Amino acid sequence: MAVLKDFAIYFDQPFAVYYPGQFVSGYVVVQLDQGSINITGIKLHAYGRGYTRILANFRNGTFDVDSNQGVECDEYLDRIEYIYGEGRKFLMPVGRHHLKFKFQLPYNMLPSSYEGGVNCYIRYTITATMIRPWAYDYITTKAFTILEKIDINLPDLKVLAGSEDFVSGSGCFSCLSTPIKLSATTDRTGYCSGENIKVCISIENTARKRLREVVIKLIQNVMFIANDLVWNNQKVYEKIRINNITKTGDRIEWTDQLIPIPCLPPSSKACRTIRLHYAIYVKATVWNGYNLTVKIPIVIGTKPLQDMFETNGSDAVYKYRDCIDGKIDFLRKDSQQYFIGNHTFVPQYPFIVS
User: Fold this and answer.
1) Is the pLDDT of residue 247 over 70?
2) What is the Cα–Cα distance from 54 to 237, expressed in whole angstroms?
3) Which of 38, 165, 217, 353 is close enough to 317 for a disulfide, judged by CB 3.0 to 4.6 Å?
4) CATH architecture of structural domain 155-301
5) Closest CA relative to residue 157, chosen from 266, 256, 238, 309
6) Can you give the pLDDT at residue 188?
7) Could you tell me if 269 and 278 are in contact, meaning their C-beta atoms sit under 8 angstroms apart?
8) Residues contacting 278, CB < 8 A, separation 6+
9) 244: pLDDT confidence band, cut at 50, 70 and 90?
């Protein structure tokens, strides 16, 4: 009786990270012990899609959780080929088999891989199926990462970014003789994971009100869209709190506050149903708990700043690293019993090591 000892997919590229238009290549390993096995072939399916399911829809005071209205799916890749056999019944001999595959990704815009849970993701997989007549098929699958080309060397992404907010002496603030203004800037608009965002903060406080604290946050905002439903999810990845403030005067400044960027999914607008945006938020708490807040949109790219590597003496290195959000199991629990091997996955994103 044949014993299937190994059935797995391997990529030639060690990190399994690809860009639109590149070739994806690798091999499928099949190891049979103690005998041959009847099959009609081994089929390879490369598939990519963006999937969004908004579970709860608040309508007329109640949550409608069973409706399919909040489900959207966009397919980006769908390619099937036989890598062994041609659909006719035959015996696969005992031994270890290496079955190569190679295909080219579409040149059109493919959104970057993103894992937001079982109900929201942009995912690309390769699945190998050993088709057995009159028996359950053997199936193995593996996910890989695709990245959009987001070049932070573009002029628009190299310029300073900034915003400001103020409270004036009117309405609830009528006791203020002069406005209080918060201004903040970043050294540029585009970054890659692993870099530091340089934030400069200025507070014009001619009213001489007490400044309690300043908080700086790196925030990811993901917009999920399914039919006529929209859901926004916000996550804080870095936070710096400046308190016990002793600075006084008409103008208070902090220069070169550094916010490190962890390994994050890049900004993305290419997917119709999932859109990723990033921003730096600065909040100053002044005068009896009132807040001033500024938001500075930034872009997380996939092609790093060229100046960083051309500078003499620079130790910066460009690598791929696991997303900070960690691994996920990308198969539904009710289908895992039909698959062989490991089906966890963590996307790999560009990361600057200096």
Assistant:
1) no
2) 23
3) 353
4) Sandwich (2.60)
5) 266
6) 93
7) no
8) 218, 219, 220, 221, 264, 267, 297, 298, 299, 300
9) confident
CATH architecture of 3-149+325-353: Sandwich (2.60)
Q: Which residue has the tokens 């079982």?
A: 118
User: How would you write the chain as a 3-class SS string?
Assistant: CCEEEEEEEEECCCCCEECCCCEEEEEEEEEEECCCEEECEEEEEEEEEEEEECCCEEECCEEECCCHHHEEEEEEEEEEEEEECCCCCEEECCEEEEEEEEEECCCCCCCCCEECCCCEEEEEEEEEEEECCCCCCEEEEEEEEECCCCECCCHHHHCCEEEEEEECCCHHHCCCCCCEEEEEEECCCEECCCCEEEEEEEEEECCCCCEEEEEEEEEEEEEEEECCEEEEEEEEEEEEEECCCCCCCCEEEEEEEEEECCCCCCCECCCCCEEEEEEEEEEEEECCCEEEEEEEEEEECCECCHHHHHCCCCCCEEEEEECCCCCEECCCCCCHHHECCCCEECCEEEEEEC
pLDDT at 216 over 90: yes
244, two tokens: 């016990």
C-alpha span between 223 and 231 (Å, rounded):
6
| Other CB atoms within 10 Å distance of the CB of residue 15 | 13
Measured between alpha carbons, how far is 281 from 201 in angstroms, rounded to an integer? 11
Provide the b/e sequence for 279-294 (b: ≥16 CB within 10 Å): bbbbbbbbbeeeebeb
Tell me whether strands 57-59 and 41-53 are parallel, antiparallel or unpaired. Answer: unpaired
Domain edges within the chain? 3-149+325-353, 155-301
Residue type for position 293 = T
Segment 299-347, tens digit of pLDDT: 999 999 887 766 655 566 889 999 999 999 888 766 667 788 888 999 9
Residue 63 pLDDT > 80? no
Is pLDDT at 198 greater than 60 in this prediction? Answer: yes
Residue 301 tokens read as: 């790219």
Please state, in angstroms and rounded to a whole number, the distance separating the CA atoms of residues 34 and 15.
Answer: 34
- pLDDT of 187 over the 90 cut: yes
Do the domains at 3-149+325-353 and 155-301 have one common CATH topology?
A: yes
